[in-house]
Amino acid sequence: MKLTSWVDTIAELTQPDQVIWITGEKSQQDQITALLVENQTFIPLNQKLRPNSYLARTDPRDVARVEERTFICSENEVDAGPTNNWMDPSLMREKLSGLFRGSMRGRVMYVIPFSMGILDSPLAKLGVEITDSPYVVSSMQIMTRVSSEVVDRINSGSQFVPAVHTVGAPLIDDNGERTDDVPWPCNPDVYVVQFPETREIWSHGSGYGGNSLLGKKAMSLRIGSVLGRDEGWLAEHMLLIRVTAPSGKVYHLAAAFPSACGKTNLAMLRLTIPGWKVETIGDDIVWIRPNDSGQLVAINPEAGFFGVAPGTGESTNQTAMDTVRSDTVFTNVALTPDGDVWWEGMTDLAPSELTDWQGNHWTPDSGHLAAHPNSRFCVPLSNCPQLIEDWKTGEPVVLDAILFGGRRATNVPLVAQSRSWEHGIFIGATMASEQTAAAEGPIGKLRRDPFAMVPFAGYNMANYWEHWLSMGRIGDRSKLPEIFQVNWFRKSKDGQYLWPGFGENSRVIAWIIGRISGELEGFDSPLGKIPSNGELDLAGLKLSELDIQKLFEVEPDSWTAEINNIKQFFNEFGENLPPELNAELVELEGRINRTK
Ligand code: GTP
Ligand code: SPV
Ligand code: MN
Q1: Residue nearest atom 26 in ligand 1 by C-alpha distance
Q2: Predicted pLDDT at 59
Q3: pLDDT at 72 > cutoff 90
Q4: Which residues make Cβ contacts (< 8 Å) with residue 146, sequence separation at least 6?
Q5: Percent of residues, the chain, with pLDDT higher than 90
Q6: Taking residues 168-185, what's their average pLDDT?
Q7: What's the average model confidence in pLDDT over 392-406?
Q8: pLDDT for 253-312, tens place per residue?
Q9: Whose CA is nearest to atom 28 of ligand 1?
């Protein structure tokens, strides 16, 4: 597709006043920031306390990803699979052309050329997002690599993913009447649509995060997973870290946790045990592919963090606090009287007075949260003091381990190692988590979220599992990463977290590396290898014997109920379910039954 003719077609459809091409240059970025301040979308923060940083308050209806309005419009419904919303592509195209017709009237249409991954990386992919939101322009310049060079490459024949976004709030109506703008224009008729065959993205109505920053979930995961299926690689909702053991040996770990389940925190882990070091590579998206020697190598295709603010504080994630010290766009956090930001969990005590995320006066007695539970910070990777030194090269790293985790109050142990590649894929496929504020929906409800990819897989989840299984057939299995299950969120009967989490998760990382290096034996449980007595370094923790036992307890009846729930879930995929996964389920049932 020719870039300029596509841009012309979209401009004809959406009818903006003006078209501006984003170049990635600092001077243009500064103009966009100034415009956002003028429009009151950005509130400048205190320059001394939080240099070059801004607060954005969204419309209170536009605060999270909208999964029920996210569609995979493949030609055949079966290719979207039971975990995705689907609509016939021609019907959806009709709907979208209605919604997009004249949607940018009175506004500027921005054309953002970007690369996911370092431009010269063989793993990089190009995209172009068209948007009428300067907030999106500003955030995309943080989250992706925006440059005119991308345009040159496209004009010389490189492929790109076309992505169109509008907030769906034209400033001129059908009668030609002009209305005033608001700080956060949006439209409750949200659609986030992916066409996997033509690799197109169309997003209407929302300016928020994953709904509007289309290089992120829409391109890097939904379209990315389809590209990965067709080209032999994997696009994953994972963090990526480099761990250096006291021996000096270096390991790379990726981990898939659902939204708001701890990826950013683990990506920025500060170790509480001596001699170890963790460096951050990425916190949300990882692209993985087999190399010539049959290892899996990985990159972080993003250029920034779009992290959950609440719960981030000096005692939980000092690295994130240092990262957002400057150059950060905060969305839906609270404002302090001296022009700084605050959110629940930043400090133990709330300030006595704040302006809440909706702009209202707030005190600790107000009876509601000051920051929205899905409030976020958006900041360049380069701000992170723990970033790997060679991040600028974008060199892929060889994966040594993959972790799967979620919020599980029961059943799932603190850590367990899979018995084989297939068992590892089974663990990923049967992941479940208690729902969080990252998406609209009931908080706390348990849902199956295989590979943390339910909101992000661009094709049938069962075929996606098969694609993962196929990585186990490419060569020497011993070169593949080891797969582990983790759970920081197991609770005692009285509802308290059993595990301290955060920095203390380093103890689990150390055990995982002990298993990979062969230094630790582990102990066979029905769920895989768990630490045997003394293998998990617990020195200095205030954990009782009973707590430790509870963290690893396998309750047979509870597991029988879980297995039945997994059976029901697997049934949704009919004959597309890979037989290996059913075989794993049967084996698990056998192992659980033998403990009864
Ligand atoms: P997305 O950006 O939505 O994909 O989220 P994420 O997976 O990066 O989650 P993040 O690290 O931002 O954590 C989400 C919430 O979980 C925050 O409020 C954290 O404070 C909390 N959290 C993270 N790690 C731990 C942990 O080890 N234990 C406990 N109890 N809470 C944690
Ligand atoms: C998530 O929900 O997994 C996020 C935030 O990382 S968003 O970009 O809004 O998808
Ligand atoms: Mn995420």
Answers
A1: 501
A2: 98
A3: yes
A4: 22, 23, 24, 112, 113, 114, 140
A5: 95
A6: 96
A7: 96
A8: 999 999 999 999 999 999 889 999 999 999 999 999 999 999 999 999 999 999 999 999
A9: 501
What pLDDT does residue 445 have? 82
> Domain 305-383, what fold?
Phosphoenolpyruvate Carboxykinase; domain 2 (2.170.8)
Q: What is the 3-state secondary structure (H, E, C) of 377-434?
A: EEEEHHHCCCECHHHHHCCCEECCEEEEECCCCCCCCCEEECCCHHHHHHHHHCCEEE
Tally of CA atoms within 13 A in the half-sphere of 391 that contains its CB: 22
For ligand 2, is residue 222 a contact (CB within 6 Å)?
no
Segments making up each domain of the chain, as ranges: 3-43+61-231, 236-303+392-593, 305-383
- Going from the Cα of 377 to the center of ligand 1, the distance in angstroms, rounded, reads 13
The answer for residues whose C-beta is within 8 angstroms of residue 226's C-beta and 6 or more apart is 196, 199, 458, 459
For ligand 1, whether the C-beta of 144 sits within 6 Å is: no
Q: Would the CB of 405 count as within 6 Å of ligand 2?
A: no
Structure tokens belonging to residue 452: 């943390």
Nearest CA to ligand 2 atom 4: 259
Q: What is the mean pLDDT of residues 524-540?
A: 96
| Tokens describing residue 256 | 């898939």
pLDDT for the residue 519: 97
Distance CA 214, CA 301 (A): 13
DSSP sequence for 199-214: TEEEEES--SHHHH-T
Using most ligand atoms within 8 A of CB, pick from 62, 65, 116, 449 the residue to mutate for ligand 2: 65
Ligand 2 pocket test, candidate residues 306, 308, 331, 447, most atoms within 8 A of CB: 306
Rounded to two decimals, the pTM is 0.97
- Tens of pLDDT, residues 133-144: 999 999 999 999
Residue 54 and residue 143 in contact, taking contact as beta carbons nearer than 8 Å:
no
Per-residue pLDDT tens over the stretch 477-494 = 999 999 999 999 999 989
**Is 384 in the active site?**
no
Q: Which atom of ligand 2 is nearest to the CA of 65?
A: 9
Query: In this structure, which residue's CA is closest to atom 24 in ligand 1?
Result: 262
Task: For residue 376, give the ligand 2 atom closest to its CA.
Answer: 5
CA of 243 to the centre of ligand 1 (A): 20
Q: Which long-range contacts (CB under 8 A, 24 or more apart) does 586-589 make?
A: 588/426, 588/526, 588/527, 588/563, 589/560, 589/563
pLDDT of residue 272: 86
The enclosing H or E element of 113 equals strand 108-116
Domain 236-303+392-593 sits in CATH at: 3.90.228.20
Question: Cα(83) to centroid of ligand 3, in Å?
Answer: 17
Say how many Å lie between the CA of residue 116 and the centre of ligand 3: 16
Cα of 262 from ligand 1 centre, angstroms? 3
C-alpha 523 to ligand 1 mean position (Å) = 29
Fold classification of 3-43+61-231 (topology level): Phosphoenolpyruvate Carboxykinase; domain 1 (3.40.449)
> Does residue 233 surpass a pLDDT of 80?
yes
- Mean pLDDT across 10-25: 98
Residues in the chain, how many?
596
Catalytic residue among 73, 186, 261, 378: 261
